[in-house]
Amino acid sequence: MCQLLGMNCNVPTDIIFSFSGFQARGGQTDVHKDGFGIAFFEGRGVRLFLDPQPSAQSPVAELIRSYPIKSKNVVSHIRKATQGEINLENTHPFVRELWGRYWIFAHNGDLKDFKPELDGSYRPVGTTDSELAFAYIMQELRKTFPDYPGSETLFQFMTELTKSIGARGVFNFLFSNGEFLFAHCSTKLSYIVRQAPFSTARLKDREMTVDFSSVTTEIDRVAVIATQPLTDNETWTTLEPGTLWFFRDGIPTKSAKTIAGVEKEEACKT
Predict the structure, then answer these.
(1) Which positions are catalytic?
(2) For 206, which of 48, 118, 132, 200 is 20 to 30 Å away at the CA?
(3) Distance between CA atoms of 34 and 13, rounded to whole angstroms?
(4) 256 alpha carbon, distance to own chain's centre
(5) Cα dihedral sign for 201, 253, 175, 10?
(6) What is the strand order of the sheet 181-185 is part of?
(7) pTM above 0.85, yes or no
(8) Domain ranges of the chain
(9) What superfamily would CATH give domain 3-267?
(10) Residue 65: per-residue pLDDT
């Protein structure tokens, strides 16, 4: 299956260090050779880069590594195709507009016999189960809430909707509007929060280290979410399968169970 990478921060931050390790997993240190993409929020705008080539050999990926875009919310994806051909329209992340904001979505998994009824307000361009799920999510949000309902109501609604879609198969995903980031763990997802006092981090997939104390300030706080931990000298938190998480300003603020029949929501301790 695919792999996910997300970043949520309290100040605009570049993702070059984490992306360098993540990029190598797209055909060099792992088998995810069917394309990659990355989306950066800048204010209300989005920079989106997609390439159906393996990220480890992609000139677009090399551009990202040499161009330190700073953002508070980033979503990236490297693909190992399960549904849909290997082409540009099937490459994640996907972007749509709702309530005057862009939303970005990337999925790792495989939804079996997922055939939701679409009303035409959102339609997939490609042929993946992932983009179909995204179109359905956006449709249901638009149909239920004519205007933005607030993050608390949105989180509760997304918890229930994720239960429904997740019942069809593996449904790990990242979903953001540039203000916050949802992360759903169906099978495998981890995160780390970097904040003062900062230390040195070492990538697993490349010979690369960074002393974050030399490139950050005392107020900086960065949450990095990945399918598998990217560093081998830091302590990552493994998310419990069947949980939806809400990240804002570099910290997970709440989580909820998304396994059908289990009701639980709690604030996260930081």
Answers:
(1) 2
(2) 48
(3) 28
(4) 17
(5) negative
(6) 94-98, 101-111, 169-176, 181-185, 243-248, 251-257, 265-267
(7) yes
(8) 3-267
(9) Aminohydrolase, N-terminal nucleophile (Ntn) domain (3.60.20.10)
(10) 87
